[in-house]
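Aim 2, interim progress. The first record below pairs a target sequence with its structure tokens.
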Amino acid sequence: KASSLINDLFGISSHDLPYSLAFTTTLYLVNYICNALLIIGIICLIGLVIICVAEAFTDNNNTPNQNWWTVFVLLVFATITFGMQNKEISETSIRQKTYWLALQMDFNQNHYCQNIKKNYSVAFIGSNQDRVIVNLNMVQLKTINYEDFLTRTSSSINTNMDSKIKFPVVSCKVLDINL
């Protein structure tokens, strides 16, 4: 899924953008783990509520049931996990974080290609590194602040991400030097 997303965003193989592929795979892994934990938490919550209600009807001594604290903790856990799924690691958020990460970590403005303007950032692709994908977006993104990267929602990452942005692949022409 991470490879498909990178291919959709940039039109090249995801193996040419290794940092983006690694982090996007991790984001999807966290998303899937949250899905599993949410389902397990809801099943446990329903089971505990049934047990607590059954004990409340069968208890003749009216002793307080200690399971209600567990129900409360599971409810808070499920709410936090559901909130993360719909904000920090939603499909839209992962898409924009992948775009942001690629521009920050895989693209480089310090290139030696003579046929590409210096203010464009490029990512070298292919096994020979003789072709580049060029970022024609002139907007320079802020440097990643890793401390709050995961807590950012898709609306707080200002990437100016337009679905019509194209990333052309061109040959990198270097200055020939004869020694």
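The second target in this work package is listed in the same format:
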Amino acid sequence: LDFGDAPANGIRTPRLARELGVEATMVPLIWSLLESAPGVFDGPQVPFLRGINDDLAADGFVVHLAVSPIVQDQLTLPADLAQAVSQGTIRFNDPPFIARFNRLLDFIHGALPDLPVVTLDIGQEADRYLDVQPDPQFWSDFLQFLWQVSPHAKSLWGAQLSVSVNATHRGLVAGPTAS
């Protein structure tokens, strides 16, 4: 269940969600909406992030966290990184890129100290970006990035944390390596 969108009447109903069997909630975050400049976490999603910790901790839900450098067919990186990636001056698997993402995870962890995060999706429907960037090297770099940031994420939220990328069914069955 995604409590990220406020209900029309302004009243969240976690009790009703529990009655319907909901045990987890999604917290979708976009990198460019958190970090406005290198190391500056004051983007428009920051107030939401700070407010949701208390609300969700009181509700007792486990959290499926999504932190997205790619959403569908868009890079959702801070402007300086998006420009550097598009110009080829930095790649997803470059140590400075990985270190910066790890600092983002540190910030998020600090803002959500009371929430049991059980999964971390890095990218939302990221396979749709294949239409924009079909270069196998880009995707190899992205995969290496996932492998490199996963241990840091697990050091923050526990070894049981599942780290993955969210993709579409179309990407699964029609991707470049599908037979």
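The first strand starts at residue 24 and ends at 30. This observation will shape the mutagenesis plan for the next reporting period.
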